[in-house]
Amino acid sequence: MSIWIDKQGRRHVGVMVAGRRVHRILPTGASASDAKQLESRLQLELKATKPIAGDPLLETIMPLYMEHAKTTRWPDQAELCAQRIQPWLTGYRASQAREVAAKIIRDMKPAYKPATINRSLAALKKALSLAWDLGMTQVNHGMEIKSLPPNNKREVFLTEDEVRHLASHCAEGVQAAIWIALYTGARRGEILAMKPADVGNHSLTIHAQNTKTLRTRVIPIVDPLWRWLSVLPLPYKDYEGLKSGFQRGRTKAGMEHVNFHDLRHSCASILISSGADLYTVSKILGHAAVTTTQRYAHMQVEQQRSALAKAFA
C-alpha cells in the first residue's frame, strides 16, 4: 500500500491484497484526504472480492483485441496469438497484467520461442491499450508488460537432397509449398497468397500486400519450379493447414528439427554456395536492406577460405 505524487502533481494510490494489485491515479488537484479515502475503499473492495470500478477482468478486455485483429494484415495469425494465452487470463484483472505476463512467460518458455511468446504478449498489451483508450481503465496497464529479448536465430540449412527426402513424405500441396519456398526463398504467407495469375512467362510476382516488407518483388522462374507452380493456388485456407501438413511430413521423414522457414534460409545458403553475392540474395529474399542478409555472410567467408586454401595449398 502506498500513496505518492508524480512529476505532474497527480496523486497515485497503490494497493495490494492477497496478491491482487490495483493502481489508481487521482485527478489533478485531489487532496491527500481524497487519496486516503480511495486507498481505504480499494482495500475493502479487494478484501470483499467485489468488482473494482475501472479494473475489468482481462477476459472482458480480450474481445476488444479480437475485433482489432480482423483489421490486421494477417487476421488468423493475430487471433491465434490471443487465443494462445486465454487459459492464463481467467480470473485476473487489468491491474494484474504484469503478474499474468510473468506467468505466461514462465509457462510458455519450455515450448515456445521468445518471438512467439512476444506476439502473444503484444496481443494482451494491445487489448489493454484499447481498453484504456475507451476509458475502461484509468491506466494503460499494457505499458507494464515487458517483452522477452528475441533469440530466434537458427542455423538449419538443408541441401537439395535433404529437401527432396522431406518433400517425398508430404502430400502434393505441401510438396509444392516446400519446393516453391526453396526455389524462390518466399515466406510461407507469401506462398499461400500466390495465384496462377502471379505466374508470368519468365517470372513470378509476389505482390506488396502479401509481403512482410510491403514491397512487390519479381523472382525469375527456374525450370524445376514450373511443375510446382501448376499446383497454385495451394489447397489451404490458412497457414495452420499447411503447418499441420508440413509437420506430419517432417515426422514421417525423420526430420522433426526442420521448420518451414528453414527452407527460406536453405535457399539463401544454396545461392551463396553457388557464388551469389549478398546483394543478389537480399533481392531474391525480399529483404528491406542488405544488412538483413548479413546473417549469411559467414557462408561467403567459408567459401572464400576454401578458394584460398585450394589456390595456395
Explain how this protein is built:
The chain is mostly helical and 313 residues long. The protein has 3 domains: 38 residues, no CATH class; 87 residues; 153 residues, hpI Integrase, Chain A, CATH 1.10.443.10. The chain is 49% helix and 8% strand. The chain contains 14 helices and 5 strands. β1 and β2 form a beta hairpin. α2 packs across α6 and α8 crosses α12.
Question: What descriptors fit this protein?
Answer:
313 residues, mainly alpha, hpI Integrase, Chain A, 3 domains, 3-stranded antiparallel sheet, two-stranded antiparallel sheet, 14 helices, 5 strands
Q: What is the number of strand segments? A: 5
CATH architecture of the largest domain: Orthogonal Bundle
The largest sheet, given as strand count, sense and whether it forms a barrel, is: 3 strands, antiparallel
Number of domains: 3
Order of helices and strands: EEEHHHHHHHHHEEHHHHH
The poorly predicted ranges are none
